[in-house]
Every structure is written in C-alpha cells, then in structure tokens.
Amino acid sequence: xxxxxxxxxxxxxKTTRLFLCLVAFLSVTFAGNPADADELxxxxxxxxxxxxxxxxxxxxxxxxxxxxxxxxxxxYLSRPRGDGPFPAVVVLHGCEGMRLSVKELWPKRLxxxxxxxxxxxxxxxxxxxxxxxxxxxxxxxxxxGALNFLSKQSFVDIRRVAxxxxxxxGTATLEGTKIEGNEQLMDHKFQAAVAYYPRCAxxxxxxxxxxxxLTGERDNWSPADRCRKRLANLSDDSPPIELNxxxxxxxxxxxxxxxxxxxxxxxxxxxNPDAAGKSIRSVHTFLxxxxxx
Length: 293
What we know:
Blueprint lengths: L1 H29 L8 E6 L7 H9 L11 E7 L7 E7 L7 H13 L3 E6 L18 H12 L4 E11 L1 H8 L16 E5 L14 E6 L7 H9 L8 E6 L15 E3 L2 E3 L3 H19 L2
Parallel strand pairs: 3-4, 3-5, 5-6, 6-7, 7-8
Antiparallel strand pairs: 1-2, 2-4, 9-10
C-alpha cells in the first residue's frame, strides 16, 4: 500500500510539472511582447528654430536661410501591454552615459506603473563617452526631440508626458522647463518634470510645469543650497516646485550599482537604499498627481 501511494504521488508531481511547463510555454508564445522589453528607436533632437527677428533680417538682406536640422539620436523605448494611449516619461541620463539604473531599472519601474518610457541616448551618435569634464551641446533639444517622436505614437497620450533627468540630465530637465527658455519654441510641451540631483540655478526663476527635485544633503556635486535659492526666488504665479533633500545622502543615491560608493573627480557617489525608497515613492505620487486623466 505504501509503495502504491508513493507511486501515485510521484505520478501526480510529474503531471503537475508537465502542466506548469505547458502554462509557461503558452504564456511566452501568446503573451506578445513583454512589457519591459526595450526597443531601439531612432529620432532627431528638436531643431533650433529661428527667431522672428532673425527671419525678418534675412528677408531684408535677401539672405536664404536653410531649414534647421536636428541631431540624429538613439533611444530605448519601453511600454506597458495594451493599446493605450498611455502617459509617458522621457528620461535623460547623466554625464557618465547610460548606466544600468537609468537604462534598465527606472524604465521597468515606470512601465510597471503604467507609463511608456523613452530613455534618450545623447552620446552614441555624437561619439561621446562622457561629459563629466566637458560641455555637451544643449540637451534640452534632445528632450523635445524625444517628445516629438512620442507625439507620433498612437499608444502615447501626448497631453500626459513628463521629463525626468539624472545629474546633468536633471540639470537639462530644469533648463527645459524654465520660464522664457527654449520650451516656448517647441511644438509640444511636457506636463511635469522630475530632476534627480541637478545643478540648480537661482536665475532660472519660475517654472513652466510642476517640478519635483530630489537631492542629497551631502552632495557637493549638485549642492542643495542652489535649489533652495531658486525656490526662494519663485513668483506667486509659478507652477509648484517640490524640493526633497535627503539627510546624509550623496550623489547617485538612487543607483544600486553604487552600493560600495566611489569618488569621481572629488565627488562621492553612493547608493542609499532608504533615500532611494523614499524618492521612488515621491516620484510615483508626483507622476500620479500630474499625469492622471
């Protein structure tokens, strides 16, 4: 009797395993594209539009102006399952380029929240390795080129797109959403912005959209005091700018690839799981608030 029960148990286990394998096979075969799959896409940065004054002077002098052209760029597109249209987030990397947390972790997180994500690669087509000690042409136009690309996708609700940047990408995010900046020349507009440890400037003044800034108290690469000064100079008419400063925290505090910490050009970059978790929850709440229907 005991041998018979063991034999039946083994048969049951084998049947269950076969069933689970079949379910897994069918899931892969018929589920379609996985939600976190990256698609390499090609687009151009937004061309620098000529001002009315420049056009007028050219006409007076009989000068023929050439049509402005954008810079060819690459991007990594991720999207939730379904037809949409979904809200979206354009992501700008920092001076070191496409690190793991920006290229993979944040897109997966944002897709799981229901957003289409386009991570802009500003370096590859320009043959740039990093810009931590050099200057890169205005990346604001890269962000708006990505927004133009998304405007042509049927699964994106172009009325609900946020700009999100890290380090120098965060600085570009602030530049691209300041009053009287290049944003006023663009065909499409962002609805909100998130900037991780950017270099703030008090002279930027008011914003064009609600902004969330997240930075570390000990970050000497992107000092929090600069951000405090900008907020102190906002007018009563400015969209809200929320500033979250995390105590005892350095640059790149959301990036788990820097668990050990490192020193770059005299600046400490180190992951802080507590600050990372708090910032992620803040981003989730912020995007829900400003990109909801």
